[in-house]
Amino acid sequence: MTTETPVPVAKRVPSERTHHGDTVVDEYAWLAAKDDPETIAHLTAENAHTEARTAHLAELRATLFEETRRRTQETDLSVPARKGDHWYYTRTVEGQQYGVQCRRAVRDGETDPPVSVDGAPLDGEEVLLDGNLLAEGHDFFSLGAFDVSPDGRWLAYSTDFSGDERFTLRVKDLTTGEVLADEVPGTFYGTAWSADASVLFYVTVDDAWRPHRVWRHRIGTPSTEDVVVHQEDDERFWVGVELTRSEKFVLIDIHSKITSEVLVIPAGNPTGEPASVAPRRQGVEYSVEHHGHRFLILHNDDAEDFALAYTSADAPGDWVPLIPHTPGTRLESVDAFADHLVVSLRTNGLTGLRVLPVGGGDGHDIDFPEPLYSVGLDSNPEYRTRQVRLRYASLVAPESVYDYDLVTRELTLRRRKPVLPGPDGREYDPADYEQHRDWALADDGTRVPISLVCRAGTPRDGSAGCVIYGYGSYEASMDPWFSVARLSLLDRGVVFAVAHVRGGGELGRRWYDQGKMLAKKNTFTDFVACARHLVKSGWTSADRLVARGASAGGLLMGAVANLAPDAFAGVVAQVPFVDPLTSILDPSLPLTVTEWEEWGNPLDDPEVYAYMKSYAPYENVAAVDYPAILAVTSLNDTRVLYHEPAKWIARLRAVAPQGDYLLKTEMGAGHGGPSGRYDSWREEAFVNAWILDRLGAA
After folding, report:
1. Burial (CB count <10 Å: 0-12, 13-18, 19+), residue 333
2. What is the DSSP string of 556-610?
3. How far apart are CA 695 and CA 492, in angstroms?
4. Residues 406, 387: contact at Cβ < 8 Å?
5. pLDDT tens string 406-417
6. Residues of the signal sequence (predicted)?
């Protein structure tokens, strides 16, 4: 690499904070001033520095981008899903960044979804929204709501052009193509229609960007006349809204990290008062699905891994058991259809689906042959159906769409996402790759699962480069997924591993509980144990191992860099939550109060304060030999603010100046990074080129 001068840091008076008798000096707090010209100048200089330090990788980046593009069928069409009298689907067109949302009328006798040749438009299609037209003149574009009314006449949709996840909601008349004057700025995700499509419910946020209000809007009236249906004043809770698949009820979901309540409004009486299905009780979570005369209740009341029950839809009361609690089998959701229920679950670290006939008879699980995979329900808008749509993938199997007959138990492959020939012209063959499940032993004796994929025949003598990925928060599970861009690493001899550390949900609710609050350090020590295990087992060596994580997984990256800097040759931290103590101490920041049930409340609890300070990456930067670090962030991120990685990189340079640290900031994007598919491919090519360089495989 070249050795350009490090980015100069503006001289500012350090800020101080004192909590529980502890005074902390923050030399880089000024970087939180997003509108300060010196902040923008600093980020711009960091970008220039990163570009200069990686200029030698420009050709490799272009090659990796081209490999992803060549392997991707750019003009493509999703498997149409039926809703009422139409098939709904999304098309992509070669050279265009965004999808085109379409529908086509169902024809007489048509039961199977129509098929397109080479992704071409279906005969008779109707374009509902073209993301490319909406995005014209903008560097960023994201679609929030896309919600067709029950009668198929109206489309509620919302757009974001900055990446801050604050959308402008609009309504389109699908019979005339006219976009109505009904326009609501500053909305969040989530909409729901009334049964007669005269009313649309939506969500807005408070000053801390917490979704806290559900509104009722009557079509054809100005938004100034909209009515607040529910306002959630408890700052630990956020709200959402949706229409049940049966189209009988509007659900208002009120949820904190550990407690929930659901309010219902009859969809046929949208001006009615919301009624609670069950009042909230601290520590009890439940969700609701409507099914005939009853509400299905998925809950954790005396059921750590959740149980399924039901109560009367007319007069909700006692919960009658349907599926009892089984430790080790985590029930995650239930979907109701007229004659069947489908329960999404996980056991032994794998996802699964269980079908329950409504009229009696034994339930059954849907079987899949691979040792590692992820499966879940896809879009299933029809309530009265005997088929459900599934989405399936593994580390070697491209994303596949199946229809499953709930009566005959027949599984029909509708489409497997094409992987076109690579640069060598060879067709993609899953048999060219291997996937494995391994287990590491954590410091406390806990066995931690690792999923691995590599090119067939990759040596197990420590000579292979390896990327180890982790997350470990919010009970989010890193289930096996397929990636076209990842093939460029595997084909260069790199092993890809996923460490299923505590704090995630792979092994049930207890796995999550053992990696949060005052047990959070298990997440970090588990990851280090997985890294050490990969070296000990011959998958790689410490000087050929790069760690990667994003968001809360970026916190994991910062923590393990402090905990075991010798274990890694490089660390990629994307939109990383690396200054958690500062953020969680400030209840005015977006989402802080809602996070206290995940991390603890250091503002009021000195034990939590001391514990968080002991692992927070920014607080624990030391004069040690760190691995090379690449931090990637976005200026308009509202979930993890850009200044966390900016401060972290600045402090690393000051305290351990011998290290190689880079910061790349997307100046017009949000938490998910660039919005267009080609831009996101370029971003991935940038990261993978840096990884290959660290592994000596560039």
Report:
1. middle
2. HHHHHHHH-GGG-SEEEEES----HHHHHT-TTSTTHHHHHHHH--TTT-HHHHH
3. 11
4. yes
5. 999 999 999 999
6. none
- What is the C-alpha to C-alpha distance for residues 329 and 505, in angstroms, rounded to an integer? 11
Q: How open is the CA angle 435-439-440, to the nearest 5 degrees?
A: 130
Confidence of residue 5 (pLDDT cuts 50, 70, 90): low
Half-sphere exposure of 312 (CA within 13 A, CB side): 5
Q: Are 275 and 264 in contact (CB under 8 A)?
A: yes
Kindly provide the b/e burial profile for residues 656-674, where b requires at least 16 CB atoms within 10 angstroms of the residue's own CB. Answer: beebbbbbbbbebbbbbbb
Greatest alpha-carbon span in the chain: 75
At residue 326, what are phi and psi to the nearest 5 degrees? Answer: -125, 105
Eight-state DSSP code of residue 432: G
Length of the chain: 698
Catalytic residue among 551, 583, 634, 675: 551
Is residue 2 scored above 50 in pLDDT?
Answer: no
Active site residue 551: yes
If you ran DSSP here, which 8-state letter would residue 445 be given? S
Catalytic pick from 49, 671, 675, 693?
671
Q: Are 523 and 579 in contact (CB under 8 A)?
A: no
Q: Which residues, listed in sequence order, are joined to residue 276 by a DSSP beta bridge?
A: 263
Q: Which two tokens stand for residue 119?
A: 């992704």
Burial 277-314 (b: 16+ CB within 10 A, else e): bbebeeebbbbbbbbeebbbbbbbbebebbbbbbbebe
Token digits of residue 74:
């750019």
Question: Distances from the Cα of 674 to the Cαs of 69, 428, 550, 632, 680, in angstroms?
Answer: 16, 27, 14, 11, 5
CA 342 – CA 375 distance, rounded (Å): 13
Residue 1 has pLDDT above 50, yes or no: no
Q: Classify burial at 490, counting beta carbons within 10 Å of its beta carbon; exposed 0-12, middle 13-18, buried 19 or more.
A: buried
Whole-angstrom distance, CA of residue 32 vs CA of residue 18 = 19
For helices 606-615 and 521-536, angle between their N-to-C axes, nearest 10 degrees: 30
pLDDT at 4: 56
Which residue in 155, 119, 113, 161 sits closest to 137, CA to CA?
Answer: 161
Contact in structure between 433 and 410 (CB atoms under 8 Å): no
Average pLDDT, the chain: 96
Q: Residue range 185-211: average pLDDT?
A: 96
Give the helix/strand (H/E) hosting 374. strand 374-377
Residue 684: predicted pLDDT: 98
Out of 160, 226, 479, 637, the active site residue is 637
- Helix (H, G, I), strand (E, B), or coil: what is residue 536? helix
Report the C-alpha gap between 525 and 82 in whole angstroms: 47
Measured from the Cβ of residue 196, the count of other Cβ atoms closer than 10 Å reads 12
- What are the beta bridge partners of residue 466? 495, 545
Q: Cα 508 from chain centroid?
A: 18
Task: Report the pLDDT averaged over residues 44-61.
Answer: 98
**Two tokens at 256?**
């904190």
Q: Helix, strand, or coil here: 194?
A: coil
Phi and psi for 51 in degrees, rounded to 5?
Answer: -65, -40
Tokens of 325: 């609690």
Q: What crossing angle do the helices spanning 677-694 and 58-71 adopt, rounded to 10°?
A: 130
